[in-house]
Write a sequence for this structure.
């Protein structure tokens, strides 16, 4: 609230700033991340600047005009626009909450009160489980192989030219293989430390690479990172050789490798960034001649799909990727026709037994 017995040269601006500060404190008390809070405050300031009005003057038409402007300029994703509408609605709910008294302040000083500006009739409704680009999909087994072959070849090509970058290319190939083998997000891969590679007592054949401890997993908006344990499955055991080669032969050649805890380091001894990992995928994808609409996250989708096709239970796959809801995991899963036909064949054989001859009915 506003400080008592203080005369403001611009009362409206002072009230607006006090509203923002009060909302900031409320969110901070909920232990939301500073980045989330800051982004929300900037959004409210953008709406104020766009409309030329203060929050107690906003009407539904102002919110609609703002979103329409964003849609025609910078915002293309439906999910982004919805998140903006939700954040603005949260701010308006804070102003309308009688426990904070802002409605009374506005009525007394300006003869107006805040109102909700987004409602069912003018906001984006969440009706679809997945609203992303439909061209983004899991890679087939052949595409995975082509991607990794291209990534491996980059190191040799660069070395043959006699220029710097061969070690970095070898590292990039190892990163991409690890992301696929463990179903990681790019930030999760970037934030891995050496200590996050562990043994699995139930699978000693994998040595020190049977478990990856993810300590910086994606969390609900504003919440701290989620942790999870990802197990290496036998079908992905080829990554053991990849990781062992990285740790014993390649990483020690980076300078200085022992001063940084990160699993993936740069030529200058720093942590490899998510952006650099994304660039490594794009380079390998383009070298392999794969669809340019495929992005790095498609490797995570591929892991989920292939684990499912390997026969792992849905709950196991859900835990592997750290999804709170099974419906989220199902969005990632796009099993092949070959796999579905395999299930169909097993079902028909189970039902018809010796009377099934494998021919269509």
């Amino acid at each position: 609230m506003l400080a008592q017995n203080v005369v403001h040269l611009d009362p409206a601006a002072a009230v607006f700033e006090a509203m923002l500060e009060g909302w900031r404190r409320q969110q901070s008390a909920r232990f939301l991340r500073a980045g989330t809070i800051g982004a929300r405050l900037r959004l409210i300031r953008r709406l104020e600047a766009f409309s030329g009005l203060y929050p107690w003057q906003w009407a539904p038409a102002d919110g609609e005009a703002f979103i329409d402007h964003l849609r025609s300029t910078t915002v293309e994703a439906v999910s982004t626009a919805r998140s903006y509408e939700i954040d603005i609605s949260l701010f308006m709910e804070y102003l309308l909450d009688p426990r904070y008294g802002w409605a009374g302040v506005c009525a007394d000083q300006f003869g107006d009160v805040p109102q909700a500006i987004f409602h069912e009739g003018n906001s984006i409704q969440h009706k679809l489980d997945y609203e992303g680009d439909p061209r983004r999909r899991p890679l087939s087994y052949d595409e995975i192989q082509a991607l990794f072959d291209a990534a491996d070849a980059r190191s040799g090509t660069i070395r043959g030219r006699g220029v710097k970058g061969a070690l970095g290319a070898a590292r990039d190939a190892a990163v991409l293989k690890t992301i696929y083998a463990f179903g990681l997000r790019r930030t999760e891969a970037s934030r891995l430390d050496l200590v996050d590679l562990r043994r699995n007592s139930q699978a000693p054949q994998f040595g020190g690479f049977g478990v990856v401890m993810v300590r910086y997993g994606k969390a609900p908006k504003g919440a701290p990172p989620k942790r999870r344990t990802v197990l290496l499955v036998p079908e992905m055991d080829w990554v053991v050789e990849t990781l062992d080669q990285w740790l014993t032969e390649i990483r020690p050649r980076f300078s200085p490798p022992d001063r940084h805890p990160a699993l993936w380091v740069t030529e200058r001894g720093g942590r490899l960034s998510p952006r650099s990992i994304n660039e490594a995928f794009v380079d390998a994808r383009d070298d392999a001649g794969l669809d340019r609409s495929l992005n790095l996250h498609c490797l995570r989708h591929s892991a989920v799909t292939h684990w499912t096709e390997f026969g792992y239970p849905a709950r196991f796959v859900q835990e592997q990727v750290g999804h709170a809801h099974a419906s989220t995991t199902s969005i990632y899963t796009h099993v092949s026709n070959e796999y579905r036909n395999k299930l169909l064949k097993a079902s028909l054989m189970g039902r018809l037994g010796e009377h099934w001859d494998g021919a269509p009915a």
Residues 141-297 form a domain with the hpI Integrase; Chain A fold (CATH 1.10.443.10). The mean pLDDT is 86. The longest strand covers residues 211-217.
